Each structure stands twice: as C-alpha cells, then as structure tokens.
Amino acid sequence: MNKFNFGPNDTAIQQWGCFDKWALSHLDAHQVVYAFSDGSQYTIYVTYSHHCFAKTVKGYNDHANLLFPHSKDPRHFHQERYQLSLYLPDIIPQLPELYTFLGGGGGYCSCKVLSHEGKEMDYLVVFKMFKSINKLRLHVTSAYPYQRGKTRKVGFEKIVKALHEGRKLPGSK
Known about the structure:
mainly beta
C-alpha cells in the first residue's frame, strides 16, 4: 500500500506487515513535524530499510532459514537489530535533540545510548535526507549497535533547513 505519494522513483516500503512471527509495523512510513526554536516547522516523511532488522548474508547466519527476500538485497533476519529497531519510532522525533554527525557514504547518523536487556549501548541510526515530489524525506538506511569514535557534529536543524531551501546539504560533496 502506498500510504504517501512519494513518486515513482521513491521505492521505499511504506507498510511492512509481518515477517515470519515478527511484526514490522513499527517501521511503517509515518510523518514527523519538527518545530525549531525560530518558530519554523517542517513535516518530514519517514521510511525505513530492511537493514534495520536484517544483516548481510555474506559471512552471517543468525537464522539460517529466515532470509528476508528483498529483490535486490536479500539479508538474514537479525534478532538484536530487530529488537533495537523497536526504538526507532521514538528516536526519529527526537533527532533535533540527539547528536547527529556526518556518516559514511554521505549519510547522516545519530547515536543514542539505549538500554537493551539491561545493558547500555550506543545505537547508530544511519539516514539519508532528500526531497521527493516536494516532500521532505528521511529514509533510515540502517541501524545497529556500534562503538562511537571521532565524528564531526552536524545539527539536524541545519540539515532540514538546507534540504527545504534546496541548498547543498551540510557535508555533501
């Protein structure tokens, strides 16, 4: 189902349903309205990749018979990534308050210390921002636990405003 009309070139899954016994509806497309201190407000349409709950097939096999059948990028279901992905709908609205920084491949990342099964950990949320049919889009390309190293902070508000105004995104080449 196409919940939002993003245009023919935007192929993000908008309604996930279930995979085996795991519900994925927490990753359904949704919109978030971000309000900034200068009074400006921006509606961002959010989608998620299967990389939030699956890991590359090469050299990894959490559930041998649970291969997520993505046409161009099949991956194995990953229990820990799935459990952490349940936090994503709560993390995305908080992006302006979280530490966002330049990520690999021109993406933007935000890390947040989360408690998972009683342990604190860093969680990397990798996202791309772009326009599609005059809509501001945020697509979470991946999310996983990681060890935070040296990064260069880029404010989320700066990213949103540059995208809205049609300017080059901070850190893009």
